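Supplementary notes for students who missed Thursday's class. We covered one full example, reproduced here. Read the sequence, then the structure, then the short commentary at the end.
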Amino acid sequence: MMCFELRIGREELWEKEECHREKAQSLNTLKIQPFPLPSLGPHDVRVRMKAVGICGSDVHYLKTMRCADFIGHECAGVIEELLEMQPLQGRKIPSLPYARTPPVHGSLANQVVHPADMCFKLPDNVSLEEGAMCEPLSVGVHACRRAEVGPETNVLVMGDGPIGLVTMLAARAFGVPRIVIVVVDVDDNRLSVSKQLGADGIVKVTTSLEDVGFEVEQIQKLKL
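Structure (token representation):
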């Protein structure tokens, strides 16, 4: 999962008044094409998209083509038009929901129309790129709330992918003193990021039963 600005080397398309969307056209092929915006309803807003995250599901659909569709997951943009609720105009907003089933298309577009009550104002000190990451971060926050973690608990995170890492960050923000990440598919880059973000311990697990048993013993020794 990563975030990028909506430029893709074709800046002029993203500033046009006409709507363009990025579509998974065929295996490993994306195509920018015109797309008619729906009419603006009394409780809708038109949003100029500024940043969109690339989720693992986007990559999966691009590689498998289970369904050719307009992609785009977590995102952030600026409200450009609305019929009511005028105080919202010009505000930065994050994370427009994306249900990967037509007619609800993805957000990898220069413009989208969306219900105003599903848009949330970003604080002035939060960038649009950071705003686009609110959705994955919310997964980690929700997990910590469900688990009721805090200063009196330690946390074991299973996996060092983007969700695992944001869960670790959320746990730290909840006051968790000790966090250990269990890594299954060892990736040196992810290991490095895990360490940079403050993991107190990293346990590597391979696919052999002997190694799994050994690592379980190591986890027990950590006294979480």
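Commentary. Residues 134-147 form the longest helix (14 residues). Helices lie at 11-14, 56-64, 128-132, 134-147, 162-173, 188-196, 209-221. If anything here is unclear, bring it to office hours.
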